[in-house]
Design brief:
Aminopeptidase; eight-stranded mixed beta sheet; GNAT_dom; alpha+beta; transferase; acyltransferase activity, transferring groups other than amino-acyl groups
């Protein structure tokens, strides 16, 4: 398989955008209605701040980016560049606040190959190194099984953003 993980660069952005589109369209169909998938496009997308912060990763198989995702030391919990009111770039305090897992996507041709787990491991290790003791994420229904297998637990009731159901989750690092 030859899976490697590297920190994303600006040169990876076109491939990242294509993976996000394929993942949103191709992997949520068993969990969301077509209107919910369309609504998710309002806030799911590339977050270039993560790339600038060097906290975003690409998983590569056979010289092809197969997945992407990362973590953040900023307050934004979820949402890409176009998510407007969701974006808060102010820093978190690692001594008292959890880091964030952000923008996890796998190309549909590469699901169930360890890509999500590899990216989560890289992100958790980096957040731990930065001094964080906990990490939060906002899961889609499609992502919840992976996060549960990786030790994340729901920390509240489902919420809806733009009519899309999401699950707040946390893990101790």
């Amino acid at each position: 398989m030859g899976l490697t993980v590297h920190i994303a660069t600006d040169g990876d952005l076109p491939a990242i955008a294509a993976i996000i589109e394929r993942a949103v369209t191709g992997l949520q169909g068993n969990f969301l209605s077509q209107s919910e998938i369309e609504a998710s496009r309002r806030f799911m997308g590339v977050d270039t701040q993560l790339v600038r912060d060097a906290t975003y990763f690409c998983a590569v198989i056979d010289d092809r980016i197969a997945g992407c995702g990362g973590w953040s030391w900023r307050r934004t919990l979820f949402g890409g560049d176009g998510a407007g009111d969701l974006i808060d770039p102010s820093p978190l305090d690692p001594a008292s606040e959890p880091a964030r897992i952000r923008a996890m996507y796998t190309h549909p041709d590469y699901v169930r190959r360890g890509i999500g787990r590899a990216i989560l491991t890289a992100a958790e290790d980096a957040a731990r190194t930065a001094g964080f003791r906990e990490i939060d994420l906002m899961s889609t229904l499609a992502g919840e099984p992976l996060y549960r297998r990786c030790g994340y637990r729901a920390i509240g009731e489902r919420v809806h953003y733009a009519d899309v159901p999401l699950i707040p989750m946390r893990k101790q690092l």
